[in-house]
């Protein structure tokens, strides 16, 4: 495994002293499993990239794909179950699609397991989108089984690589230092599981978080990040939004542009995978401005790992997600064009992923009562909102911005019960 990606090792003083090789860490983080064939020595920096990472893309601005053809989109999933057998089948299905040429041979897949939760104040995990609580060990097992399914169904494509980003969010009251720390440890353990199965040569696991300014406050989000950063060996991807941020405002809630920048790039484990959901280009403009902010305010070139759309998830529901159903190629083109319009942000965005609804849990695994799932009790309250087509920021569908001046729907759960 690529030890450069593992952000911990050695004492804190020694990590600060060692700088040789750290300049390449962010590039290696974005390379994903394709770099596994190169043996490297573990860095003692304690992070996956240096604070001087803005130097990495100062060269070769000519060969950009900002106006060209978008990469083939991978499929990410809103996870409705942590059943290991279902996860295996999902990974195998994705692998077979890649073998047929409909999915990329170099993929980043987010498995979004829902909002953070701590069961009975003891066990960390998440509240899934339909089947209630899943513990971190269950989520870890699901991620490893997804990887095994992909591996088994891509044996004829030995060069195919996959990075699995295990996702949660900053929704609810359990966005804490402890949850972030537990999430990072789960990611570390999942990669050890891949190694034990000898499938880590072209598959690895990272963390992920759907940070949305209209959910938790910035203090809680920063605490989660700091918890993750306290034990992480692998980076996390921010597949969230910049709701209300420039050029359309000062960011939603108590968040500032600095807060959004911190969770997306400023924190050392962080890599941005922004939601580019709006077809009118508003989300792309917000992330372009955030990239400019990073370059100007922090002298740091923000490296965008990829973009996320939700076109397929919208098609799977009766609500068409008006204004938020951007296609994956258009999402990539919108952001790439803006990034490459300025030499301070110019770059080649590597990955595209379109989020979808994962397989349903088996009937006997579903909650017996609606109050066992965080989705069921909110259904009646939102029927009127669905009828009138109010723009929403559903916990699973992210940024609710139809128009830059339109405030997100106040309840981020309204999409859950269709």
Question: What would you say this structure looks like, in words?
Answer:
With 418 residues, the chain is of the alpha/beta class. Helix content is 31%, strand content 14%. It has 2 domains: 56 residues, no CATH class; 300 residues, TIM Barrel (Alpha-Beta Barrel). The strands form 2 sheets. The protein has an 8-stranded parallel sheet. Strands 3-4-5 form a 3-stranded antiparallel sheet. Strand 3 and strand 4 form a beta hairpin. The N terminus and C terminus are likely disordered.
List the helices and strands and how they pair.
Elements: H1 12-17, H2 25-31, E1 74-78, H3 84-99, E2 106-112, E3 115-119, E4 123-127, E5 133-135, H4 136-152, E6 161-169, H5 177-196, E7 203-210, H6 218-231, E8 236-238, H7 257-266, E9 270-272, H8 282-297, E10 306-309, H9 311-315, H10 328-339, E11 351-357, H11 383-388
Parallel strand pairs: 1-2, 1-11, 2-6, 6-7, 7-8, 8-9, 10-11
Antiparallel strand pairs: 3-4, 4-5
| Secondary-structure element string | HHEHEEEEHEHEHEHEHEHHEH
Supply the number of structural domains: 2
**What's the overall geometry?**
globular
Query: Helix- and strand-based class?
Result: alpha/beta
Key features of this structure:
disordered N terminus; disordered C terminus; single chain; 2 domains; 418 residues; TIM Barrel; 3-stranded antiparallel beta sheet; 8-stranded parallel beta sheet; alpha/beta
Characterize this entry briefly.
The protein has 418 residues and is of the alpha/beta class.
